[in-house]
Amino acid sequence: MFHIVQYRPLRLITQNRLSCRCFKLMLSRPVAFAQIWKSWFSSHSLVGNKNIILMGAPGAGKTTIGRIVGQKLDCPVIDIDDDVLETTWNMSVAEKLQDVGNEQFIEEEGKALLKFSASGSVISLTGSNPMHTAGMQHMKKNGIVVYLDVPTTVIMSRLKSMKVDRVVGQSPGIPLKDILQFRKQFYRRWYDIRVLCAGNVAAEVVAEKVLDAVKRYQNTELETFISTRSARSERSMERDSHKYFSDVVTESLAPDGGLFVPERGLPKFTAEEWQSLLEATYIERAQVILERCIHPADIPASKLAEIIGTAYGENFTCSKIAPVRHLAGNQFLLELFHGPTASFKDFALQMVPHLFAYCIPRSCNYLVVVATSGDTGSAVLDGFSRLHDADKQRIAVINFFPEDGVSPVQKSQMICCQKENAWSVGVKSDFDFCQTAIKQIFTNSEYTGFLTVEYGTALAAANSINWARLLPQVVYHASAYLDLVHQGVIPFGSPVDVCIPTGNFGNILAALYAKKMGIPIRRCICASNENNVLTDFIRTGVFDLRGRKLIHTFSPAVDILKSSNLERYLHLIAKEDGQLVTQCYHQLEKQGHFQLQKDLLGKLQQDLVAGWCSEEDCLAAIHSVYSTTGYILDTHTAVAKVVADRLQDRTCPIIISSTAHYSKFAPAILRALRIAEINQNPLSQLHLLSSYSPLPPVHWGLLETLKKRGNGDHQVCAADMSMLMSHMETLIQNHFM
Fold first, then answer.
1. By the 8 A CB rule, do 528 and 612 touch?
2. Threonine synthase N-terminal domain: which residues (predicted)?
3. What long-range pairs does 154-157 form, CB within 8 A, spacing at least 24?
4. Within a domain: residue 264?
5. Is residue 641 scored above 70 in pLDDT?
6. What is the CATH number of the domain that holds 540?
7. What gap in Å lies between CA 388 and CA 393, rounded to an integer?
8. Distance between CA 543 and CA 592 in Å, rounded?
9. Does 716 share its domain with 653?
């Protein structure tokens, strides 16, 4: 927190400005001056003795906002341009730039910074200060760097109106837009906090946002996590055992069997903040959104940027990462299959391994345990295989999947992705058994304690029960809406519907979270296959597993009866009433069903509508879309398309999540396209599909996987929890001992 002391400070910008002589003393004898400065302001504290350092492009408003922040905090304000550079050089910055040229100017600026020292102040940097490494390293030692992130189009408009002629790098033949874009890499390198600054927001408002951001940076207690089954009366007693983002990434499941959620919910963006991201790339949008959701004490902005860049920089076949494609009428497809394993799971699982490796303590080994209905397994194995060797030595992965409940290509992927520290084990049961067994293992304190004592190994989960799995999915739902606005399909603020093939409820929950954060999503349409427990629940409020048996369908990733992430949504609409959630899930475990109260069902139906699709309708949709457009839907997307056709009211655009590439389900696709002779070899099936020159093309990553498969082998076990534990211990012994 800020500690404000009432006194009349020495101001450098507004009144009682320091004389040139005084500043020359500071620049020539920084150590002595720093001591005087420190003594003068010993009774005043901003963030200890640190400075608030405002950074941004020319025209970002650093000077104006710095003055306002200084006034609000009653502390000194220093403008590097006016109070340091011009005082040091005895000439204007524009004259200096003209005198020495671009490269030498940056060097001279840096030298001035290295001689500068202050504490407890608000400092406004020049637009080019961040381009000098040594100077910025010196400034960061005693400051919190706040990046005023203003859209490039707004900056260009401001500079034009200001008739600025002193932008470093500005010379004939070099567009100003290119200079500003080039500089962003330096701003991203140095900042601790980002503040989004839309073009029409008043400086006073931005100044308040700066103060709020600094307070957040200082106070980690603001962003703690609770269990979905934690009663309000218990939370005050749990304050000494707060869970933070870095904790929930590694612990995955709460000790009481619930799922972790942010105690104060997710951050909300203003309409202006969302609109400031219209011109941004997918990676830039991900960085901004995730910075708001992950406290910098858990993962600093610079490290988060590195992780996001690694996850999405080269591993996706499409430069747009998650492009939105017009299908027909008011329907758009959000293509989520351009990652290395060709499903939407890649968006989280190219990131989560790096988040996990950063957050775990170095003194402990970890076994990451996964249950998959098809796509998660290969995505987890691929993601963790991309870690640095040092991280692989302390992290092993075991993937349990229903042996007869995934497609041939999905099984091939999981087998091919195996490594010495990463195994795939087929289980003679369904996904629900695998997921339930893992939850029981995680909440078995005797067994997890045994693994820690005997093998020095802790367990972690990479399923969507892990909070870190959900956050990257929020990004693509927000980005899809922004793309429609950017393409001129709708103005910002106009609603859209989204339709999502749903099994474990994680993907659709991410869309609901995006809505809570300010994206104008009107309705989320939950699309099920013949395993339509969720459809019945959303329509009636009764979640009933009694007498239900899992049906194996053409869309195996949603062949799920018991949806884990539904618990998080119920916690949300129950206004964080963990006791109610506990009652529901205890009844589900004991009796196989529960029923929502009427008021909660009403809230649910304001957000969600639901429908389901038969196997015949799924294949018919694939054939129909291909016949009319040449585009091939995968089986899960076809389920969503059928449900969207039935439930949309055509008053707004509808974004259908295309969650996997059709190449993963070649036999069903070939059947839908009514190709009579189907070779049983998966590689031959993909070559046959490719001969039709489809849109999109056959996924190259899957082709490469199948080419190197050979006679890959994997282990198979019975549906017995003790057998799963045995496989886990064997992997631990082989890899860590």
1. yes
2. 240-312
3. 154/197, 154/198, 154/199, 155/57, 155/58, 155/59, 155/60, 155/180, 156/180, 157/199
4. no
5. yes
6. 3.40.50.1100
7. 9
8. 8
9. no
Secondary structure tally for the chain: helices H, strands E: 34, 20
Separation of alpha carbons 125 and 147, rounded Å? 10
Q: How many domains are there within the chain?
A: 3
pLDDT in tens, 187-224: 999 999 999 998 778 999 999 999 999 999 998 888 99
Residue 5 pLDDT level (bands cut at 50, 70, 90): very low
Say how far residue 284 (Cα) sits from the centre of its chain.
Answer: 11
Decide if 156 is inside a domain.
Answer: yes
Whole-angstrom distance, CA of residue 335 vs CA of residue 339: 10
* 255 to 33, 226, 229, 307, 367: CA distances (angstroms): 54, 11, 10, 29, 18
Q: Which range marks the domain in which residue 382 is found?
A: 360-463+707-736
- Answer with the one of 218, 240, 256 that is the final residue of a domain: 218
Please choose, from the candidates 384, 196, 223, 195, the residue with its C-alpha nearest in 3D space to the C-alpha of residue 299.
223
User: Are β-strands 51-55 and 143-149 bridged in parallel, bridged antiparallel, or unpaired?
Assistant: parallel
Quote the pLDDT of residue 171.
72
What are 685's two structure tokens?
A: 């099936």
CB-based burial, 431-445: b 16+ in 10 Å, e otherwise:
bbbbbbbbbebbeee
CA pair distance 475, 229, nearest whole angstrom: 26
pLDDT at 290 > cutoff 80:
yes
User: In this structure, is the dihedral angle defined by the CA atoms of residues 441, 445, 450 and 452, taken in order, positive or negative?
Assistant: positive
What distance in Å separates the CA atoms of residue 641 and residue 619, rounded to the nearest whole number? 11
Q: Please tell me which of 30-44, 92-106, 151-165, 323-337 the model is most confident about, judged by mean pLDDT.
A: 323-337
Are residue 67 and residue 204 in the same domain, yes or no? yes
Co-location of 568 and 434 in the same domain: no
Which pLDDT value is given to residue 647?
97
Average pLDDT (1-26) is 30
**pLDDT (0 to 100) of residue 206:** 96
Under 8 Å CB-to-CB from 86, ≥6 apart: which residues?
92, 93
Q: Which CATH number covers residue 166?
A: 3.40.50.300
Single out the residue in 218, 235, 263 at which a domain terminates: 218
Selected residue with higher pLDDT from 620 and 103: 620
Place of tokens 């998080």: 568
Contacts of 403 (CB under 8 A, 6+ apart): 426, 427, 428, 716
706 confidence band (pLDDT: 50, 70, 90): confident
